[in-house]
Design the sequence.
C-alpha cells in the first residue's frame, strides 16, 4: 500500500513539474513587442557643439548602437564650434519634424528661443551636459554645481589653513556664459564662503582652449610664486594648465573635470592632473538612450513633462584609479 502511495505521489510531482516547465516556456513578455513597435521607425536628430572631441563622439557612438538595436534612426548635425551653424541645424531639424532632438548647448542663451520653437512644434528635446536657460523635456548630464562644490572643498583641504600652505588658488573657466562655468562658479563661491584662508587670486576664461589655459596658468604662477591650487573646468583644456605647472617645477594642486576618456587617466598617471572629476560619458550615453526611449514611448505632448538625469561624479586620482576608470572610443564603437 505504501509503495502505491509513493508511486502516485511521484506521478503527481512529475505532472506538476512538467506543467510548470510548459508554463515557463509559454510565458510572453507583454510589454516587449509593443515597446519595440513604438520605437521602430522613429527619428532622432543630434546637434552637438562639434564632433571633433571626445564627449559628443562618445555619446554618438552609444546612441547609434542603441538606435540600431531597437530600430529608430539617429542623424547627426555638426555645429562645428559655431552657434550660427548650430542654430541653422536646429532650425532645419524643426522643419523635418523628428520625434526627438538631442542638443548640446554652447551656452545658456544662444539656442533658448530655438529650443522653445522645437517644443512648440511638437518635437521633444533633450539637452545633454550643457544646459540652456530654457528647460526642455529632459536634461541629461553633469551636475555642475556638485562638481564645483567638490573642487572647492578639495581646495579647502589641500590649500586651507590646516594644510600649512598659502591658501592661494586660481580658477580657469570655460566661456563665461557656458553652463559648466555659470553653475560651477556659483558652487565654488557658495562653498568658499566663510573660508577666509582661501584666496582666489585669478579667475579667467580659458574658453575651452588648451593654449589659452596654458598662457593663463603661466602668468598666474609667475605672479603668485606660492600658488597652491588651480581649479580647471575641462580636462582637455587643462592639459595646457598642467603643462604650465610642470614647466614651473612647482607643486600646485590641479583638479579638473571631464568625460572620463582614457586621456584623463593618462593625465593622472603622468602627473598632469592631481584629480579628474569624471561625469562618465559611458553612463551619460546610457542615460541618453533611456531618456530617448522614455520620450518616444510617452503620450505626453512635447514640453508637458520635464525631468533631469544628473550624472553621478566619479573621482579619478592615483588613489582611486582602476582599469575601468576611463573609457576608450574605439571600444565604445564596438
Sequence:
Amino acid at each position: 500500500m505504501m509503495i502505491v502511495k509513493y508511486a502516485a505521489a511521484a506521478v503527481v510531482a512529475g505532472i506538476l513539474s512538467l506543467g510548470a516547465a510548459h508554463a515557463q516556456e509559454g510565458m510572453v513578455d507583454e510589454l516587449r513587442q509593443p515597446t519595440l513597435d513604438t520605437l521602430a521607425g522613429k527619428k532622432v536628430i543630434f546637434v552637438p557643439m562639434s564632433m571633433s572631441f571626445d564627449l559628443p563622439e562618445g555619446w554618438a557612438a552609444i546612441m547609434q548602437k542603441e538606435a540600431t538595436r531597437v530600430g529608430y534612426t539617429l542623424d547627426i548635425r555638426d555645429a562645428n564650434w559655431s552657434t550660427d551653424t548650430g542654430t541653422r541645424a536646429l532650425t532645419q531639424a524643426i522643419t523635418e519634424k523628428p520625434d526627438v532632438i538631442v542638443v548640446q548647448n554652447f551656452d545658456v542663451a544662444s539656442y533658448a528661443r530655438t529650443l522653445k520653437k522645437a517644443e512648440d512644434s511638437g518635437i521633444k528635446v533633450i539637452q545633454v551636459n550643457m544646459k540652456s536657460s530654457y528647460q526642455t523635456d529632459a536634461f541629461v548630464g553633469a551636475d555642475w554645481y556638485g562638481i564645483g562644490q567638490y573642487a572647492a572643498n578639495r581646495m579647502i583641504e589641500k590649500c586651507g589653513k590646516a594644510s600649512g600652505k598659502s591658501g592661494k588658488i586660481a580658477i580657469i573657466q570655460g566661456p563665461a556664459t557656458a553652463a559648466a562655468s555659470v553653475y560651477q562658479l556659483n558652487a565654488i563661491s557658495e562653498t568658499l564662503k566663510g573660508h577666509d584662508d582661501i584666496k582666489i587670486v585669478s579667475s579667467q576664461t580659458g574658453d575651452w582652449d588648451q593654449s589659452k589655459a596654458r598662457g593663463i596658468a603661466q602668468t598666474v604662477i609667475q605672479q603668485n610664486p606660492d600658488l597652491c591650487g588651480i581649479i580647471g573646468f575641462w580636462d582637455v583644456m587643462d592639459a595646457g594648465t598642467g603643462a604650465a605647472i610642470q614647466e614651473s617645477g612647482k607643486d600646485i594642486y590641479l583638479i579638473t573635470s571631464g568625460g572620463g576618456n582614457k586621456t584623463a587617466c593618462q593625465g593622472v598617471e603622468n602627473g598632469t592632473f592631481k584629480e579628474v572629476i569624471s561625469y562618465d560619458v559611458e553612463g551619460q550615453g546610457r542615460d541618453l538612450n533611456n531618456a530617448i526611449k522614455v520620450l518616444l514611448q510617452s503620450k505626453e505632448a512635447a514640453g508637458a513633462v520635464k525631468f533631469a538625469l544628473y550624472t553621478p561624479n566619479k573621482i579619478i586620482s592615483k588613489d582611486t584609479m582602476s582599469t575601468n576608470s576611463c573609457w576608450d572610443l574605439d571600444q565604445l564603437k564596438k
